[in-house]
């Protein structure tokens, strides 16, 4: 179970640009590994249809008769079809899903018609949801109205390129000593379960290969997961990165700290899009601070020789290594870098996440 409300992603873009089709194709491509639920509303042969997930059963949204007609501008829809889609969304909201999709929130919903009743129910009961990621489809010119109507305070806006990105393996770093916290940060409970599992749940839709970097004392906890035991004892994350490259043949690996609960896929995908395979790494950096973040990053295999030399010389600081090498830096807003190092940090972020 997720440790906070489901991550809310708003898929937005201009009308007639293929948002729903991209979403449908992505669901079909990943149907064997992801539990998808909800409704997608694409145009097929110039005709709008509702497609139920996970069955992919379709039904037309055109009106059957004048009495069945709902009008919005020049468009006409079937009230019976909307009632059926509304019921599908409401019932699916009680089931566990990796991804829950509502396509779309439009002008009808803004005037409390269409799918409005099921949308209200889903958003009102988010704290009880068994969904890990909620995707809402909204046209770009309605985005601010929708956010205001449904009180979506911190949604992450994405575009359809998210369904086309080729991603390297992801390694979540959980083996740290957490000295300032006084307890393992990866096991902190923000409300509904352990942080490491929640982070995995939120990343599962986007990465087919997710692994955990752990220390030898954590093997029992991660018995049912794909993990890499750090080959080095108590030298910090540099040992975890070296161990990951020794286990996997990938040219590049995404590394993510387990103590950054506001990280989302839009941030990671920007790193991937701007990744430079010629340097040793691509790292995120706060706009207001000089220091780069070595564990919100993509490291290349070409870094391994420098990493091994640093380990052999007893220089375990990733920051120092990055400062003297060819590194691609991508700047983000400060909020991305909120992490949990102390009990006070934990209490603050836990309270903040209640409102998401």
Quick overview:
With 356 residues, the protein is of the alpha/beta class. It has eleven helices and 17 strands.
Number of strands: 17
Instruction: Tell me the CATH topology of the largest domain.
Output: Spore Coat Polysaccharide Biosynthesis Protein SpsA, Chain A
Spatial gap, N to C terminus: 16 Å
What is the CATH H-level superfamily of the largest domain?
A: Spore Coat Polysaccharide Biosynthesis Protein SpsA, Chain A
| Largest beta-sheet details | 8 strands, mixed
Q: How much strand?
A: 25-35%
What is the H-and-E element order?
EHEEEEEEHEHHEHEEHEEHEHEEHHEH
Helix/sheet category: alpha/beta
- The dominant shape is elongated
Q: What count of domains describes the coordinates?
A: 2
Number of distinct helices: 11
Mean pLDDT reading: 89
Question: Portion of residues in helices?
Answer: 25-40%
CATH class of the largest domain: Alpha Beta
Overall radius of gyration = 22 Å
